[in-house]
Design a protein that fits this description.
It is built from 3 helices and 6 strands. With 119 residues, it is of the alpha+beta class. It folds into 2 domains: 55 residues; 60 residues, no CATH class. The strands form 2 sheets. A 3-stranded antiparallel beta sheet has the order 1-2-3. The longest helix is centred in the middle third of the chain and has 16 residues. The chain binds zinc ion (2 copies). The site of one zinc ion has 7 residues, from loops.
């Protein structure tokens, strides 16, 4: 499970990082936040950094499933799905909307703070 968390380490106290939290293991930094990331000033920025990682590295497109569902972008019925990462939920996207751009748009809609920053 991925959750943005504020660091409590003395070195970078108050900085936000995307963390992966699994069972009893201590949370660790996830995605680009696990690399050369110096932390973020807000939860929304940490989420955006992780979203970039997913879009660059983890996206699955053109997944075919049985039933038709309405495309999350336009509502057209389709059997195609996409997802941001291995453990993330499937998103219904029609042939026209199978793209990382669509996934990015939808992910930002779920995090209103990000949309506000873009505007
Ligand atoms: Zn980061
Ligand atoms: Zn569509």
């Amino acid at each position: 499970m991925f959750i943005p968390k504020m660091s409590t380490d003395a070195l970078d106290e108050g900085k936000w990082y995307m963390m992966v939290v699994e069972g009893k293991t201590p949370p660790r930094r996830a995605g680009y936040c696990a690399g050369s990331c110096s932390g973020h000033g807000s939860e929304a920025e940490a989420s955006e950094h992780f979203l970039q990682y997913q879009l660059d590295r983890e996206v699955d497109l053109w997944l075919a499933r049985r039933g038709e569902r309405a495309c999350a972008m336009c509502g057209e019925p389709t059997t195609l799905r996409a997802r941001l990462g291995r453990n993330s939920e499937l998103v219904v996207l029609c042939r026209r909307h199978q793209s990382t751009i669509s996934l990015q748009t939808l992910a930002r809609r779920r995090v209103p703070a990000l949309a506000a920053q873009e505007a």
